[in-house]
Model the fold of this input.
Amino acid sequence: MIPEIGHFALILALLVALAQGTVPMLGAARGRADWMALAGPTAVLQLVLMLTAFLALMQAYVVSDFTVLNVAQNSHTSKPLIYKISGVWGNHEGSMLLWILILALFGAAVALFGGNLPATLKARVLAVQAWIAIGFLLFTILTSNPFERLLPAPENGGDLNPLLQDPGLAFHPPMLYTGYVGFSIAFSFAIAALIEGKVDAAWARWVRPWTLVAWCFLTAGIALGSWWAYYELGWGGWWFWDPVENVSFMPWLMGTALLHTAVVVEKRDALKVWTILLAILTFSLSLIGTFIVRSGLLTSVHAFANDPERGLFILLLLCLTIGGSLALFAVRAPALKSGGLFHPISREGALVLNNLLLATACATVFLGTLYPLFLEALGGDKVSVGAPYFNATFLPIMAPLVVAMAIGPLLPWKRADLPGALGRLKVAALLTLLAALMAVYLQRGGPLVAWLGMALAAWLFAGALTEWAGRIKLFRAPLSESWRRAGRLPRSAYGMTLAHAGLAVVIAGITASAAWQGEVVRIMKPGDIAELGGYSYRLEGVETHRGPNYTSDTASFTVLRDGREVTVLTPEKRIYDVQRRQTTEAAIHSTGLADLYAVIGDADGRGGWTVRIYHEPLVPWIWAGALIMVAGGAVSLSDRRLRVGAPTRRRKTAAAPA
Amino acid sequence: MSPGRGLRSSLGILALILGLLAPAGAAAVLPDEVLDDPVLENRARALSRLIRCLVCQNESIDTSNADLARELRILVRERLTDGDSDAEVFDFLVARYGDFVLLRPRMKPANYLLWFGPAALLLFGAAGVTLYFRRRRPSAVDGLSAEEEARVARLIGQDPDAE
Amino acid sequence: MTRRALYLLPLLLFALVAGYFLWGLASDRNPNLVPSALIDKPAPAFDLPPLDGLGRPGLATADLQNGGVALVNFFASWCLPCRAEHPLLMDLAESGVVRVLGIDFRDSPEDARRWLGQSGNPYERIGVDERGRTSIDFGVSGVPETFVIDREGRIRYQHIGPLMARDIEDKILPLIESLSE
Done:
């Protein structure tokens, strides 16, 4: 019964989307206020219906209703409850439902919180959201319906892949989707602006909060996925330039660029055409990502549904959405009036550089990910483009960007004095030199470029703090005044400082883990001791345990430093009952400066076990830094100026406060 | 060495260095595979990271648990012990599996677009940005001339509501 | 009007990318298959021991260079698709149109002997490749894979995955015919 309700809700959502996509758009064209007013309620209704459908599917999973095909294929009664729930989106059909739910969520949010949007803009934005929803609802209902029945029902289901039965992975897809589906709002705003023929500071002011929300979630989602890979896959790796990782990274790069140019549109009324294009491209990359993951076009660890028929449908959606929006861009963008002028050396100029480098980086990732396909299509051989390529091309583009990131915020708008700004960074430069020297001193067989990475991290961190210190006149005015200034700084300033500093922390973590990772692979018997990174690891023993749906060999390591016990690590090797798959559960202890990482392998039959121990310096900083970046975004979001007092479109003379 | 080859080898070295900056975790090397000579073992590990595990999804033989990966790891170590250079080890595998087995694409005409693309894109973008700045009238941001200042003063005097 | 043309550039680039996507979906390609690099090259040098107990000799390169067109089939007792294609190999062996030779890939000789004893043995000769080195030399990445070798011992065709009746009829038999002339 309940799956039928869910199915029905899904179809109703499609009908509502059809209404939402047509009536308000026509109303905006004709100035019919009553038609435009339909946008908000339909968006909210769509959310309610999608939520109903989603919860109906979740109910089927929770009670293990195996008459629903999707549940039978992907679930099992012995799974713990949390994985029954997260199993809803651990497969293609269910995740499509989540995708559309989040699309509806953002639409409803604009409807409910976009009170100060002009009616025409709101109507158009929500209509475009509806168009996207129509496409994906059709796709889901026609080719990937999660509510299909399976009769007679099997006794039990196929179970969720044990690798996915993990708390980190439970949150990874919803966060990721909220991220890159959230960019649909920026997209809708861009299309609405093109249709209206007008892009101004007000538009940028409205777009920014939604883009920020999406960006925050995408950053968190990518970091979470990375962290999951790190502790689950058992070898300390956390980024592989796998095609599916790349397709989540590309919208992030463009989304970051978009966040920055939106500021220029808002403050200086410039770079409008480019910003519109960015908004379109960011979401387009999300769509292309959705396509690549589900079409079976590329090999990937993440491979989802590999069905060419579904692939064709999504490709059609892509052509309509991306092709249509880019065609609209080609026709309407030339008419957009360009605004404020600025000197190349200025804050705007720095943001142009930022965009140039981010866009090139994104294009590089795109090129590398799809090159095997392109080459094969042209009749060439199969080639592999793996991590070595991306590291060789991506990192040299990001390095200058990081250098510029410390300088840019110090430049004023319109025209800047570069030597002056550089002069203010003298302390930062000194700290950078110190960090580089320290890196060279600690050099123990790692790559030479480790010093470059640490130098960049120090430069960026010091630069971010220098900018903040400058704003509050630290050490140049009495401390009380600095304190007062600090309290009155706009939140978006803190957001920027946090985000940039967070990135610096991430860079430090990445560099250290790449340069100074230590590893010991040995056969150990109980009582044996291994030494690594100043720590001693004593294997106490290995026991067999029963879990809810698996059997595990659990090892116990006492970790000592200077003779004192630091922690006990208990890595596991599990075999899951249903799919008979093996997973390794690494044991990790974070000291804040490093991770102590132990993995238990196979027994050698003579009382010994294969053991891997890793020493991962500064790796926790990667996740901590990402968290700081997300915090920066959240702090920016809480800036009242983004919500209250968002400019209503009066006369053109209304200028946004700096 | 001809300029082309010199460029290629410097790029190759740069690529190798930057490639080694990658998160270097190895899942899968078992204790019995490890060579006694640490120099050779390090070479073997470095090479393994550049060789694709053919039965996995996008992994190197260094990190894969698959049987074929293990066999290839042992093969690489054997050839290194026999005195093969890095290039010879790669050639051995490519002769059997094609370029697909290399995770870092070779520098050959078919891959020029791949390797030179990023730099070309950057130059193209930089050119676009330069043109954008050139098209703007530079005088407007370099300050007003005396008569323009006077004009502004007059306008301000005339219309108090205008900016 | 080059400015206007510039605005069209994103759309054109997307059209190009979409075209490749379409090709990728429409064509028969499987991104997971690893083709051998040895097509049209001589078969690698190898000399594999026989599988004891079945009364068939071992397999070496020399056997491929004299004796007519041959089919070299890589198989293993633990490989399920190999069992699926087994009847087709039996038919081919019986028809006599080609020599069917086998290489036992990473298998315990005991298990292989038992399986072939139960299901029938289509192979004129069987080489045991326990460590899989010969398979690597052939550019094999898994089982089953089947190669067509011409009279001079050159590899002419590689089929990855289990043989299907369609493949045999459409590709393999015609090739064997043309090579036998």
